Amino acid sequence: MTATVLTPPASLDTLTEILVEFPDNFLLIELCGEYDRNLTEIEQKLTVQILRRGNQLAVIGEGLAAKEAAEALQALYARLEAGREVGPGDIDRQLRMNKPEAPTRDGNQFEMFRGDTVEIKTRKKMVEPRTEAQKAYVQNLFNHELAFGIGPAGTGKTYLAVAVGVSMFIEGAVDKIILSRPAVEAGEKLGYLPGDMKDKVDPYMQPLYDALNDFLPGKQLQKMMEEKTIEIAPLAFMRGRTLSNAFVVLDEAQNATSMQMKMFLTRLGEGSRMVITGDRSQIDLPRGVSSGLHDAERLLKTIPKISFNYFTSKDVVRHPLVAAIIEAYEADEA
């Protein structure tokens, strides 16, 4: 049985109380979290007060905020009824997804789309978009052979792309995963790095390793890399290759030159998917060198089979301060 709203809000602009009843006390305990930390997080984010009364939760606050909190509690309880966990990330996702944003495209082709829910299955966990922009992005990754994700740091562009690549590999839709980045230093010269070629390029590729470690067990990841079913390589290593039956991600694409971007895009082979991610505000190319991401966006935007998804500071899913920092810099540039 699902949660029931017993007392609807009288008005959306006055202080009101909404009473929500939960039939399963054990699930209600999980919903509240240890020391009621889940309720505390909702209270802080929506500026409401949530009081527990037996198998009921009373939500007190301004009408609109109270209504949003009550709806979030119902949705999170339904998640528990479906046998899934509720953690801080799930609460954040639910509160963000409750707010109307950009419309998404239809045409779902894979089983992870269940109505309005988007789930990405990996070996270690299920990944869900936390904002409408992320949801539309994930849908386009599954539905388009070439997709662009453009926006500030912390919006999940690379993380979600790698998750989709792992999911498609597990489903047998692709035979390998290829992850690439331009080996460009972020505004400082590191000098010569010791070791062989792998030792020299690995520091640039570390964010891609981090994402893979979130989705695949360590031993399996190591074996797949040894067998070359997963490749992580600098952009310069892509020249001359044809990437067939692969899920290919180019990360930090704003640091690719126009010639490098053209070279990379023309590597796309039969049965492959390609994702280009980048942040136009973090270009580390030398002064006077044009960004390949900017040129690709300008030249390819009218091609219907190529999708472009854009993110803003509202889609940042790191520490809340990250969104505030991005907004401050954007305001200064404006």
Describe the structure.
This protein is of the alpha/beta class. The protein has two domains: 4-97, Ribosomal Protein S8, Chain: A, domain 1; 113-333, P-loop containing nucleotide triphosphate hydrolases (Rossmann fold), CATH 3.40.50.300. Helices cover 40% and strands 18% of the residues. The protein has helices spanning 25-32, 37-46, 63-81, 88-97, 132-143, 157-171, 197-215, 218-226, 258-265, 292-300, 320-333; strands at residues 4-5, 15-21, 49-53, 56-62, 113-114, 117-118, 120-121, 126-127, 146-150, 176-181, 230-234, 246-250, 273-278, 306-310. It is elongated, with a radius of gyration of 22 Å. It starts with a strand and ends with a helix. The relative contact order is 0.12.
CATH H-level homologous superfamily name of the largest domain: P-loop containing nucleotide triphosphate hydrolases
C-alpha Rg (nearest Å): 22 Å
| Strand/helix succession | EEHHEEHHEEEEHEHEHHEEHEHEH
CATH fold-level assignment of the largest domain: Rossmann fold
User: In whole angstroms, how far apart are the ends?
Assistant: 51 Å
Largest sheet: 6 strands, parallel
User: Quick one: overall form?
Assistant: elongated
How many distinct helices?
Answer: 11
Work out the helicity level. 25-40%
- Name the CATH architecture of the largest domain: 3-Layer(aba) Sandwich
Number of discrete domains: 2
Q: Quick one: CATH class of the largest domain?
A: Alpha Beta
Segments where pLDDT lies below 50 for 5+ residues?
100-115, 186-190
